[in-house]
Amino acid sequence: MSVDKLLHALPIMGYGMMGIFVVTGVIIGVVYLLKLIPEKKK
């Protein structure tokens, strides 16, 4: 494996990891907002 290929791949892997964290944060935010909505009791 050459160092040039590794250095070229690092930003791509960084964008992928950033995407995973953003999607996880959005899911956590949606779940939190859904918990704030009160349930309707019969």
Mean pLDDT: 92
Pick out the low-confidence regions. Answer: none
General shape? rod-shaped
Task: Report the biggest beta sheet as strand number plus sense, adding barrel if it closes.
Answer: none
How many DSSP helices? 1
Structural class: mainly alpha
Q: Distance between termini?
A: 65 Å
Strand content: under 5%
Q: What is the ordering of alpha helices and beta strands?
A: H
- The counted number of beta strands is 0
Give the helix proportion (percent range). over 70%
Total of domains: 1
Radius of gyration: 19 Å
Comma- or semicolon-separated keywords:
mainly alpha, 42 residues
Topology:
Blueprint: H1 3-36
Can you describe this structure in just a few lines?
The chain has one helix and no strands. It is an all-alpha fold. It has one domain (1-37).
Outline the structure in words.
The protein is mostly helical and 42 residues long. It has one domain. It is built from one helix and no strands. The chain has one helix spanning 3-36. It is rod-shaped and about 65 Å long. The protein starts with a helix and ends in a 6-residue tail after the last helix.
